[in-house]
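worker-03 picked up job from queue 'complexes'. Input manifest follows; two sequence lines, order preserved.
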Amino acid sequence: MSSVAQKKGFGAQVWDFLTTVDHKKIAILYLASGTLFFAIAGFEAILMRIQLMVPNNDFMSAGLFNELLTMHGTTMLFLAATPIIFGFMNAIVPLQIGARDVAFPFLNSLGFWMFFFGAVFLHLSFFLGGAPDAGWTSYASLSLYSPGHGIDFYVLGLQISGAGTLISGLNFIVTIITMRAPGMTYMRMPLFTWTTLVSSSLILFAFPPLTVGLFLMLVDRMFGANFFDHTMGGNTIVWEHLFWIFGHPEVYILVLPAFGLFSEIIPVFARKRLFGYSSMVFATILIGFLGFMVWAHHMFTTGMGATANAIFAVATMAIAVPTGMKVFNWILTIWGGSIKVTVPMLYALAFIPSFVAGGVTGVMQATAPLDYQLHDSYFIVAHFHYVIVGGIVTALFGSAHFYWPIIFNRALSEKLGVLTFWVFFIGFHLTFFLQHFLGLMGMPRRVFTYMADQGWDAFNMISTIGAIMMGVGVVLLVINVLLSIKSPPVNRRDYWGDGRSLEWALETPLPFYNFKQTPLVRGFDPYWIEKEEGNEEGMVYAEPLGDIHMPNNSIIPLGMTIGTFIAAFGALYSPWGDQAIAGTADSLSKAGSLTLLIGGLGITVACMIIRSVKDDLGYHVTKAEVEQTERALAEFRAKGGKR
Amino acid sequence: MMKGLKKWRLFGLLAALTVFLSACGEDYLSTLRPSGPVGQEQLNILILAVVVMTFVVIVVSTIYLVAFAKFRRAKVGENFMPKQVEGSHTLEVIWTVIPIILLLILAVPTLTATYKFADVAAMDEVNENGDPTALTVNVTAKLYWWEFEYPAQGIITAQELVVPTGEKVYFNLKAADVKHSFWIPAVGGKMDTNVENVNKFYLQFDKESEGLKDGVFYGKCAELCGPSHALMDFKVKTLSPEAFDAWVAAMQDTEGATADVNSTDAGEAAFANSCLSCHAVSAVAGAGVGPNLTAFGDRNRVAGFKDHTVEDTVDWIMYPEENKPGNLMTGKYNVTEEEAQAIAEYLMTLKVED
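worker-03 finished. Artifact:
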């Protein structure tokens, strides 16, 4: 039974990952694929920066540049940051709340595969006639005008991967509400669990507007509808609203878990309880709530009128208050503590000033009349990269180092980590700091080139050098990951020595059922409490050792996803679309298109029927098997983790 | 005494900041060197915001750096066990209330300026003769060029906006194909040109453009609109009110002007054959398919971004797709290199200014 005790063949391992419903393995799938897309999108960014390194550069064509800027933004937000965050949620949240898995392991697998196949679908556009080129916002007038299939790939790819994200979000809400160990009350939940809960709730409310928008765009582009065609009574501003009602909360969907991760890292390396826990929880909820009230600040120049602009300006400024509370709470956590500067802590320490810089420029853009100058200039490019790289990417890199021992039973190199940090961090500020000034000096964003002698040449050159440094930093991180495979196993609990929450009470490698007995949580920071009382086992238990109920693996989620993937090609090559009729995009015959559509969806429905009628009640690991697994694990650790 | 010192310090900070900011960018392009009250007020808000935000950054960084310096493990000792504090209500209240006050300071000018910039009531005001009192320009953004129509004056031009200094100029903004955004950074920003509705706003130009490097302010398209978004530049020529009136009169005088197929000028004849159906050479001709070329010879650039020379004009006529990918002129005509040369020379003669 034990996943570590037996060595499996390669084929068996692949099959295991294709069918797995184990949150720990799904986490690895999310992390691996998220990293892949992060690398692709980062490479796209470097190509764009090379094009902008000198004025009038002809490194790439204008059309390709627009494809790259669209794919960079779309990939980074939907297909890199989101899955990597889901990876950490999957890996850590069940452990933090003392659960053996998520509430719906089957849906967890389905969510991953939907995300993954949506992402693959989107990236196939590069090989099938050109990627989307209307920006990640894909404003309707331009995206309806765009020839070829690029925008169709965007719409269908995001529709599929968005469904996956929504499914995973729902899963986490239910998991956190229903699967907490006895004693893990809401106000004892670690901050990462809290931010996961709030961010999943944001997904629940923010993704449906995107789904609706994408669906309207889908029928407009592929089946000749006119929701956004103003010559036929449609309206493109509706798309802007739908997109940003999703798009702004999306920022918080990503940044709240990042806040949560830092709220885990900082107390461990300050050896001190998180300052102002309840106000941190309150601020998280408030940010999540206000996050839905501010979408139109992306549209100050759209012409909504003074009153709408004024209301959204003030509402946006209000978000600065709970965000400021969080920053001060982090600083007060290290105040009076004992700060150990490890790599995760280095990222956390760098995050605070970087994120504050991104925050204050955010407030500047919230002042609507000033935003008339800043909007769609390089200033906004600088601002959101300070938030996303300074806030989210630092969290992901720091957490990779922080949680690597739990996820992989290996540690990443601290030395190489420090070097990576400095290269990446300096590169980041070099790239984006001067872009604020480029924007103020009149440089619009999303330009594939610029004329010389407009005062922008030197700053663009420096920015490109910074981008290349960031690229080197990422390569170093990947090398660190590869080196860790050959490094000695960790084989212990509490790798950093000052762990506070439940996940650190577990000895790695973890058994597939996480907890042999469900723990009893006696307060906030349960593992810290047990350590203070000298409890060697790290936890007390809420139940005697007994049989454990676990879910069965299943290939059905993959089958369902492949069905939608096939159907998407049917829609993509639809002969009813405006572009297909105009001859600017290739299409299939009516029969061919319908066959793919109906056949693909048929596979999905068939899988759903099989899942519904075939009872799958999981299996029980008997008490004897649990004891045997625990013994095998102990032996494995004693031998130094070598097979 | 202390109060005076504080004021002086604040003033010094402001002065230093102003110098620092004004050293940034070119006066024909930079939002930091505005040439009009709209841009100036936006810059003032920027400076206020920067001051407030610098204060925030300094406070946060100080606490943060002190905490970091004082409480490193190397300093406090490996075995030091910090006191596990839960939090502090007083501190929570302080760092909630102070930001709220700072935001209120920022919110007041935000709200007043938002309403002020949106006030276009004067567009509809008329004098006793029923003529509008304010100058209005209808801007139509097209892939990838700009059309400027002066409805009260009955004239139309393209690519180069001409406006008088010292008065508010009102704009009706619209896009003909996909969404664009109308931005003159050095004068004030910015408003989108939507496809389904007309947006209105105003700008005021306080400086004659003659003294600038190219004799014009730079205008930009700020909304991604396709491959040549980066090349969708326009220029703004600001004239004294008298010079502007003279320009309007000269433009109006071009009524009925056209190119003759039988002209002895080979350029005019070729133009009449190949170009005239889309490009008018009279400013009173109404909106055309392509940019109005009445004042082509006066312009600063060709196609919005190329040098204003015969050579570059020929290059543009012969290879539009290479110059401006995705433009709508490519393939609509057929001219030889010699014809293009003649057309370019003819175009350079189309002037209304001396």
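worker-03 released lock.
The longest helix of chain B spans residues 37-70.
The domain at 28-117 of chain B is CATH 1.10.287 (Helix Hairpins).
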